[in-house]
Amino acid sequence: MQIKVLGTGCANCSATARLIEEVAEALNVPVSVEKVEDIAQIMRYGVMSTPGVVIDDQVVHYGSVPDRALIMQWLQG
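The structure assignment produced for this chain is given below.
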């Protein structure tokens, strides 16, 4: 599962990436988490407020740090 966390390096963006990695490890789900900080790339996804989360090239969340329950839903799909 390819996951991108979109954001310019803010604390919420780092927290989002860390939380996704923690939940994935707890669920034993293999993921690749990439932090995307380039504004042009972020804009291509149409995300105007960060952090944004993209899973397998589809935007699933933006504007806040997602909670553990939501991340679990994404990872268990």
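Interim note for the steering committee: The longest strand covers residues 2-6. Residues 2-76 form a domain with the Glutaredoxin fold (CATH 3.40.30.10).
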